[in-house]
Each structure stands twice: as C-alpha cells, then as structure tokens.
Amino acid sequence: MSGTVLATARTRFDDGFSFDLHTHDFHLLSWSVSATVTHHTSERDWLVPPTHALWMPAGVPHAIEVVRGGLGYGVILTGTTPWTEPTGVLVTPLVRELIVHLGTPGTAARDRAEQLLVTLLEPVPSTTFTLPVPTTHGCGPSPTPWSPTPRTTATWPPGPTTSPPASAR
Asked: What total of structural domains would you count in the chain?
C-alpha cells in the first residue's frame, strides 16, 4: 500500500454521539483508545476494540455511533490501497504510538513516521456471528410454582454458599 497521511485528529467522544450516513473523498483509519464506537455500513456493523482500528475506504457510505465515550483518533490518508471495503486493522504497540505521535502538532520526522505507519497497517480477519431470534413468544411456565409463603434460607438445599450461616455473613 502506498499512501500519504493528510491529517490526524484526536477527538474526545461523548456517550451517545453519532454521525449520520456520510462519505469521504479520502481513506479514514479510525482507532479508539478508550471509547466504544460502532461503525455502520450498508453491508454490516463493526464494533472495533482498542486493539484494532477500522480502515474505511474513500467513497464508502458509513455512520458512527458512540456507545461509550472516550478518546479516539482518525487518520486521514490518500493514495492507493488494496482494501476496497471496510477492513479491520491490527493496532500493535508501534502502530498505536505512531498514531499518537502523528496526532501531536509540530512533530519532527513526520514524513518518516507517516510512511512507517502506512507500511505497518496489517489487515486482520473479522469475526461475524449471527444472533438467533427467539421463536417463542414470552416466557414458558415456571419450573417451581410461586408460593405466597415466605421461605427462609433454612429451607434451601445445603451448599457451600446457601447454608444459613453462609447467607448471614
């Protein structure tokens, strides 16, 4: 991949912040240090942990939603890329430090740091899973009928944490 870093933005996100569907004329590497951010595209949703970043190619419509506020970085790049769809990228300790370094204004040796960052970007396989939808409506019958008579721990079966002395602690 060849590319040039145009800018690096350091942003503190608040809980519930969102950005509606939009596109960019540039590639965006989105990394969250401490925020929990969901990226939405027409194809899928991405929840990206701090150990990873999301590569969003230029022209791909996407939206973001901040589930938990925190610190994040956006690295804006131009150039050719082998990735034509959103791609998870591993954030190694070196990649992390390069992003933070590029987010600091007036850093020396910026050109070399930009080139190194672009060289180190490594795609990772994503994990997709489907959540089953319940087929029954409501809850089934209770295995133990409700009793209006108050029960004490003395009536519970004996066990290491259910005996009256253990429960009284």
From this structure: 1
* Strand, helix or coil for residue 164: helix
Contact assessment for residue 50 and residue 32, using Cβ atoms and an 8 Å cutoff? yes
> Within a domain: residue 34?
yes
Domain containing 77 equals: 4-120
**CB hemisphere CA count around 5 (13 angstroms):** 23
pTM given for the model = 0.69
What integer pLDDT is reported at residue 43 of this predicted model?
A: 87
CB-CB contact of 45 with 38 (8 Å): yes
pLDDT per residue as tens digits for the range 17-72:
998 999 999 999 999 999 889 999 998 898 888 889 999 999 999 999 999 999 99
> How far apart, in whole angstroms, are the C-alpha atoms of residue 163 and residue 142?
24
The DSSP bridge partners found for residue 19 are 64
Return the amino acid letter for 106: G
Q: Position of tokens 């910026």?
A: 110
Is 12:57 a contact under the CB 8 Å cutoff?
no
CB 75 within 8 A of CB 10: no
